[in-house]
Design brief:
The protein is α/β, with parallel strands linked by helices and about 550 residues long. The protein folds into 3 domains: about 130 residues, Protein-Tyrosine Phosphatase, Chain A (Alpha-Beta Complex); about 250 residues, FAD/NAD(P)-binding domain (3-Layer(bba) Sandwich); about 150 residues, FAD/NAD(P)-binding domain (3-Layer(bba) Sandwich). The protein is built from 16 helices and 28 strands. Strands 6, 7, 10, 11, 12, 13 and 24 form a 7-stranded mixed sheet that branches. Strands 1-2-5-3-4 form a 5-stranded mixed sheet, sandwiched between helices. The chain has a 5-stranded parallel sheet with strand order 15-22-16-17-18, covered by helices on one side.
């Protein structure tokens, strides 16, 4: 948590955690205002968790969520009302503190003065100059527009990888990465955290340590796009122009998409490996679980790493089997989809483990509602004719995977298809309408698995094509849809699923070394010991081991 003083009795901060509230209470904070929509980040506690903890400390908590850069007049009015009635000191927080600072400036500038509001923001570390025209009621002025050859939105796996791939090909390229986060996560490791294999600390580094040294890091959130003007608009109304734009902000976890979930996450036996701070809770539940009903859920596709929901089940069941508890535990896997895994060649090996663990499979069952204290869950069941019904069931432990979608600022843009994903050519990853825009990673509508392995193969393709478009490269490249899902079926063995578009098998190794359709000890070693260093020291550094792009004729 990074605190800053804006004015007397007014503080702003980046994302606060439950454990920060005691320190805030000790500093005299009486009111907190959350300006960050739930589910915006994978390391973000929901407001309900913050609110409950704040209430115990006699801190009043308000929820005024604002999409980054989309502060409306109604938001400003709502903030002014809360602020005027709030007991001071007041703390506003969001991902970086920018929305909190902006709302204060927009609502208070008339009383404190424009110059004082901007100065207060500057002293606290926030550039609010982009708000000056709005506060003054003047027309925007684009003088002093910042420009970069290549602008990358998102500093996750895809963003850092594509930046490194670009700079490895042309070290003099002017590349900027826009991302407000201070932390970078190795999210494929969270399943292993939930299985007691990795420590959480091994899956996290500072953003500053992974951004390529030759790239410029703009620590801000994107508010919107003006593709016709070749500009992105940052939070605080600051425009950035580009020659080429690469969009890869990842995916949003919609925790609110399941009624009652945000109120019970991290307690009452309700957990999820899809959040950094909850994966350790999964392992605690698994270790302590002696008998009863354990449920594992999977939402409708597309989702990040489609195999992760069942991986949590296999690792849990393996622990219960080896500790002699499995006979007292009933395992149920509820999948909103119609099959266990989308590539049929891997299903037989997985079914062997389903049978070993005596897991009950339920297809076309979508988790709709959960009541943590009552230990009940409700599923919407769809039959073969499309008719739906509601199923109520009890649980003693439940691992939940939330529904997922593109980030809000992406869904509200001109870049998306009807389903809200960035609309790209699946082969070149070039936008279908705006030729100087590319996208990769989880945010695209590309019909491939949304995995870090896919981003690793996509990054060199995008880098090659962007350089060609900038007349700094001699060829174009194509993406074959490659994705990988190391299915951890037990501690020490993995079914290494590797496939491309249309479910075509794309093994990286000869069958005599690793047969991806059978559980393998070597695949486990690859997942546990080799892939993390490859991620940190190859993928994020532009070293394209087993990831060289497929060359295309330049005129395609």
């Amino acid at each position: 948590m990074k605190l800053a003083n804006l004015a007397e009795g007014v503080l702003v901060a980046d994302q606060i955690l439950v454990e920060d509230l005691t320190a805030l209470a000790a500093q005299g904070v009486k009111t907190i205002i959350c300006h960050r929509p739930d589910g915006e980040g994978a390391d973000q506690p929901n407001f309900e968790e913050i609110s409950k903890a704040a209430k115990k400390l006699k801190i009043k908590a308000h929820y005024l969520p604002v999409i980054a850069g989309k502060i409306s007049d109604n938001d400003v009015a709502a903030y002014a009302q809360i602020f005027s009635e709030a007991e001071k000191p007041v703390l506003g927080y969001c991902r970086s503190g920018m929305r909190a600072a902006s709302l204060w400036a927009l609502s208070q500038a008339s009383s404190v003065g424009l110059s004082a509001a901007l100065s207060a923001g500057k002293n606290a570390g926030y550039d609010l100059s982009g708000l000056s025209e709005r506060i003054a009621g003047a027309n925007s002025n684009s003088s002093g527009l910042i420009h970069h050859e290549v602008v990358i939105i998102g500093g996750g796996a895809a963003g850092v990888a594509v930046a490194s791939s670009l700079l490895s090909r042309n070290s003099k390229l002017d590349v900027a990465i826009i991302d407000p986060a201070d932390t970078h996560y190795y999210q494929p490791g969270w399943t292993m955290v939930g299985g007691g294999i990795f420590k959480p600390s091994t899956t996290v580094k500072t953003m500053a340590s992974v951004i390529p040294s030759k790239a410029k890091w703009i620590k801000a959130a994107v508010a919107g796009f003006e593709p016709e003007a070749k500009q992105v608009i940052l939070e605080g109304c600051r425009p950035i122009s580009y020659d080429a734009l690469i969009v890869c902000p990842g995916i949003k976890l919609n925790w609110h998409g399941i009624e009652g979930l945000v109120e019970t996450l991290g307690q009452n036996g309700v957990t999820s490996n899809y959040r950094y701070d909850l994966a350790p809770y999964t392992w605690e539940l698994v270790k302590q679980f002696k008998k009863g009903k354990a449920i594992f859920t999977q939402p409708p596709m597309p989702i990040k790493c489609a195999g992760a929901p069942q991986k949590a089940m296999y690792l849990s069941a393996d622990h219960w089997l080896k500790s002699g508890r499995l006979n007292d535990i009933q395992i149920h896997f509820y999948n909103a989809g119609p099959v266990l895994f989308g590539v049929k060649e891997y299903v037989p090996a997985l079914m062997e483990y389903v049978e070993r663990y005596k897991a009950n499979l339920h297809f076309s069952h979508r988790l709709t509602k959960i009541d943590g204290p009552a230990k009940k869950a409700w599923f919407t069941v769809t039959d073969a004719d499309g008719n739906t019904s509601m199923l109520e069931t009890s649980f003693d432990m439940i691992h939940v995977v939330p529904p997922q979608q593109a980030p809000d600022f992406i869904r509200a843009s001109k870049l998306v298809d009807a389903a809200g994903w960035v609309d790209v050519n699946q082969d070149t990853l070039q936008h279908k309408i705006y030729p100087n825009i590319y996208a990769l990673g989880d945010v695209t509508n590309c019909p491939n698995a949304k995995t870090a392995a896919a981003a690793r193969k996509q990054a060199p393709v995008v880098a090659t094509n962007v350089l060609f478009d900038l007349n700094k490269g001699k060829q174009r490249a194509a993406y074959d849809g490659y994705g990988s899902c190391p299915l951890t079926v037990e501690r020490g063995k993995i079914v290494l699923a590797e496939f491309g578009f249309g479910g075509r098998l794309l093994p990286s190794f000869p069958q005599w070394l690793i047969n991806g359709q059978r559980p393998s000890r070597l695949a486990w070693i690859l997942k546990e010991r080799i892939l993390p260093p490859i991620y940190w020291w190859a993928m994020l550094k532009g070293r394209e081991w087993l990831a060289k792009p497929i060359k295309l004729d330049a005129d395609k």
